[in-house]
Structure prediction request, 266 residues.
Amino acid sequence: MTDQAKPRPEFRNINIFKDVRTYRLPVAAKVSILHRISGMIMFVLLPFVFWMFDTSLSSEISFATFKSAFNEGLGFIPGWFIKLATLGLIWGYLHHLCAGVRHIMIDMNHERITKQWGASSAVTVLVVSIGLTVVLGAKLFGLY
Amino acid sequence: MSSVNYGTKRIVTGAHYGARDWLVQRATAVLIVVFTVVVLAQLLFSKGAISYELWAGIFAPQWMKFITASVIVSMLWHAWVGVRNVWMDYVPAAGLRFTLQVLTIVWLVGCGAWGFEVLWRV
Prediction:
């Protein structure tokens, strides 16, 4: 045995208070936990989704309410807050979609189950989802 | 793990639903993506600001209501599989987990019914 790699820390049971700060996730694991977080965000915001569906579709008057909610706010809820929730939905949907497509690609061709493909596809997911979020978010907040 | 699997020691997970959930998760996901593309395409290929007529017009035809209704069900089912997995992974206490699962169903079914009501109002 020559030139052994220096021993790496071994985690058997991660403690949320002790280990999480020093435990470094590989990029594929980051995409994985974000897949979960983005799903839970959309689950929690589901009534907001159906409120938007309702308000935008029900009538011309409610459509106007829908539009003004994003600018002037709605009742005690300021417009920026509604935009922020929408931004959360946009990122959540995009990340969840891209990470889901990655899963289906792995399912369709098992030769993709390698460390290399796992890492490179995870980077692609982050680049595409965050890139599109920035583009759509800038539009949402009226930057162009 | 104890070999006893009855009474209070009974294991309340593992009923061979893994493969079905796996397939449902993918089938519903594809439906939701197709729906997204169908709606987005109609918005992107329109000119100018999105008017109420355009937006409501997308959901007016019966075939669109047909598709949207099954996409709402797909969303609820998809969310159920995912959220239940989250509870199963992070909430080991069976009573609390069960409570959360029931509340999840209430949350999802309530939202879905709301969606149906809106859909047939247009």
Summary: The mean pLDDT of chain A is 93. The radius of gyration of chain A is 21 Å. The longest helix of chain A spans residues 79-108. Residues 29 and 122 of chain A are 9 Å apart (CA to CA).
